[in-house]
């Protein structure tokens, strides 16, 4: 039996976590505040926070704190995260060609 490359396996474990792909897709547009992402994604604040911390630990996103009042915090892609853009765009293209309307409706009903 063929053994998986440990790096590929690690990447698949990371990106297969629910919401990670959508968070990265949102951040391709540019840096965003937590509240913006919470509004744009059908995800709880607790889980969004968890995923953002994980992506920050993996150095895929960075958290910038602006010393304003009130404090402004934005999340954006690092160069490591930006390197995922062609992969994410290719998945988007694949989904437009192969994911049916019925499959989209079933996902929307789950949320």
UniProtKB/TrEMBL annotation:
Keywords: DNA-binding, Transcription, Transcription regulation. Signal peptide: none annotated. Pfam families: HxlR (PF01638). The keyword ATP-binding does not apply. GO terms for molecular function: DNA binding. Residues 5-103 form the HTH hxlR-type domain. InterPro entries: HTH_HxlR (IPR002577), WH-like_DNA-bd_sf (IPR036388), WH_DNA-bd_sf (IPR036390). It comes from the Bacteria. This is Transcriptional regulator. It comes from Aquibacillus halophilus.
């Amino acid at each position: 039996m063929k053994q998986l490359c440990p790096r590929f396996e690690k990447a698949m474990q990371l990106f297969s976590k629910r919401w990670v792909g959508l968070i990265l897709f949102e951040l391709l547009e540019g840096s965003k505040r937590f509240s913006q992402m919470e509004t744009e994604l059908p995800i709880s604040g607790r889980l969004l926070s968890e995923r953002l911390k994980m992506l920050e630990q993996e150095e895929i996103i960075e958290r910038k704190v602006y010393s304003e009042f009130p404090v402004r915090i934005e999340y954006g892609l690092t160069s490591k995260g930006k390197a995922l853009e062609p992969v994410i765009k290719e998945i988007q293209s694949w989904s437009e060609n192969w994911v049916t309307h019925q499959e989209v409706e079933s996902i929307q009903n789950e949320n």
